[in-house]
Q: What sequence folds into this?
């Protein structure tokens, strides 16, 4: 069956091949479509034993929604969050796959917990296709109107092609498909189609990633200035508008992290075999330039950075640094620190030193500077001694970096940034009321700003932002949203806060009301901005002078 376009959209074609276009207007944040019956949905190898192999929920004994997982008693490789998922997976694919994992184990002689890793994720995806499709004879990706494969591009890349050949042969062998030239050719095409059309179902909260392929969603082309974005929740992908989309307009998403320099974006798109011709790429615009042309700037009135236009006047002085230099800084930072996940203070020092030209130009939203700050904040957040110092960094990211990188305030990443501040304030609030803060933090500015602030009111207002924006940009059962709603309920039931609570609620109902606006500015924005203003000096002190030096202030 060929895919059908979701209501409100139509398939079309143009300079970027086939595409998905809007047949109605979509406002920013509105849901364009949900995709709940993917052709492929599987966790990647490392996540296979920590994620339900059917619904893709990440297992854990902690956190907001604990999920315990049980392994299939047959292969002991695939795990499930419960019998319903296990039965559904058995029926859809695992009955055949379970035997395949047994073959992997027999052939390699490796134990069950190693065996799945011997089959890379694309090979497992291909094996699923072969197992469910009459041994690969029938094209599962709709023979009459096949998915784009970029076959010639892959073929021309000797290394990629060689790697694909190995994966295709492994998938064929283990799935029991007889190995011959014709079969291999078809399997290779499937693999190319998977590579071109599957989205990486990346969950930054849990570190889980995997493959999600839906043939209708796969019609959506890429832009580095997209008008839509995808969210994943279990086996469902949602496509939402990031900007206003007019009837007849093409719907685009970003296949990659689009806040990186152009050459890095091009590298990320290499295996899609096209050169992006969006305005960001053609004119090599930086994040500030892209942000200033965004049609959703005004939505920020209900956010921690209500006035994004202030970054225009005066504009950031970029005369001291070229786009070329920024690309070089980016590459050297990632060459020297090896991993984007390294949260150590040593890695932060190396990054900070290399980012000096960006710091001097105050181009705080230009990567790799925000990631450098975020990684240090992440380190401090979980460090008993340093957690208080994470607060100015989080405030800085939420006011100076995130709104430039993602102008729409309902984007999940921005909402998470606000939630981090809320949690840190809940922590500093307790330290303040127990009189412990000054013992835990020697930075007089931070202690003073927190002493002057009503941290409970701040938390309450921030939680309203999370709930409001989260309800626009994410699914109702997004963990962050559920947690914020519970925290808000708890806060609003605290005794002795009737007046403050009323003020926050009045502001949340009508943030444009002059009195409510003035209240939000003095009670929330002012302390948040004061705390944020300490971030550059703290970073400089700690990353240049040494961690002890922050004590002096
Ligand atoms: C997931 S598919 C999108 C649908 C595809 N256009 C089709 O005809 O089936 C990804 C492929 O679409 C093409 N594509 C996507 N975005 C593009 C863009 N901005 N410019 C040129 N080609 C693009 C590339 O061939 C890419 O490998």
A:
């Amino acid at each position: 069956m060929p895919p059908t376009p979701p209501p409100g959209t139509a398939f079309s074609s143009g300079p970027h091949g086939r595409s998905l276009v809007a047949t109605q207007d979509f406002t920013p944040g509105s849901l364009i479509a949900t995709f709940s019956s993917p052709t492929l949905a599987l966790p990647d190898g490392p996540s296979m034993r920590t994620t339900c192999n059917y619904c893709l929920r990440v297992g854990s004994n902690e956190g907001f929604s604990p999920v315990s997982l049980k392994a299939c008693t047959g292969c002991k490789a695939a795990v499930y969050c419960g019998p319903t998922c296990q039965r559904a997976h058995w029926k859809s694919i695992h009955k055949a796959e379970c035997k395949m994992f047994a073959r992997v184990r027999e052939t390699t002689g490796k134990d069950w917990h190693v065996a799945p890793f011997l089959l890379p994720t694309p090979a497992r995806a291909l094996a699923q296709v072969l197992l469910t499709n009459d041994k690969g004879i029938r094209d599962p990706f709709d023979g009459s109107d096949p998915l784009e494969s970029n076959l010639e591009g892959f073929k021309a890349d000797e290394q990629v092609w060689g790697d694909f050949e190995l994966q295709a042969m492994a998938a064929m062998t283990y799935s029991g498909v007889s190995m011959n030239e014709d079969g291999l050719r078809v399997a290779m095409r499937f693999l190319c189609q998977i590579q071109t059309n599957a989205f990486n179902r990346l969950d930054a909260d849990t570190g889980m990633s995997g493959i999600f392929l839906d043939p209708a969603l796969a019609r959506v082309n890429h832009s580095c200035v997209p008008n839509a974005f995808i969210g994943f929740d279990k086996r469902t992908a949602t496509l939402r508008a990031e900007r206003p989309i007019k009837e007849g307009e093409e719907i685009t998403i970003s296949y990659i992290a689009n806040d990186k320099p152009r050459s890095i974006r091009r590298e990320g798109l290499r295996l899609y075999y096209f050169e992006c011709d969006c305005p960001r790429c053609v004119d090599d615009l930086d994040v500030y330039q892209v942000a200033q042309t965004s049609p959703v700037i005004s939505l920020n009135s209900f956010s921690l950075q209500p006035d994004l236009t202030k970054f225009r006047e005066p504009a950031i002085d970029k005369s001291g640094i070229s786009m070329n230099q920024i690309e070089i800084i980016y590459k050297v930072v990632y060459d020297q620190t090896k991993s984007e996940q390294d949260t150590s203070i040593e890695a932060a020092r190396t990054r900070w030193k290399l980012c000096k030209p960006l710091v001097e130009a105050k181009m705080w939203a230009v990567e790799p500077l925000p990631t450098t700050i975020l990684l240090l904040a992440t380190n401090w957040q979980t460090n008993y001694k340093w957690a208080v110092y994470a607060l100015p960094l989080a405030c800085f990211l939420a006011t100076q970096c995130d709104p430039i990188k993602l102008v729409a305030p309902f984007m999940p990443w921005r909402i998470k940034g606000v939630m981090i501040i809320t949690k840190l304030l809940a922590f500093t609030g307790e330290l303040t009321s127990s009189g412990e803060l000054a013992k835990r933090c020697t930075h007089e500015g931070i202690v003073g700003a927190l002493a002057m602030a009503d941290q409970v009111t701040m938390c309450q207002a921030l939680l309203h932002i999370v709930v409001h924006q989260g309800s626009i940009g994410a699914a109702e059962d997004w963990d962050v949203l559920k947690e914020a709603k519970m925290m808000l309920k708890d806060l609003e039931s605290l005794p002795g806060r009737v007046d403050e609570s009323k003020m926050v609620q009045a502001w949340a109902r009508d943030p444009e009301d002059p009195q409510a606006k003035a209240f939000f500015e003095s009670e929330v924005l002012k302390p948040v901005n004061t705390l944020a203003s300490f971030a550059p000096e703290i970073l400089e002190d700690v990353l240049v002078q040494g961690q002890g030096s922050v004590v002096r202030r």
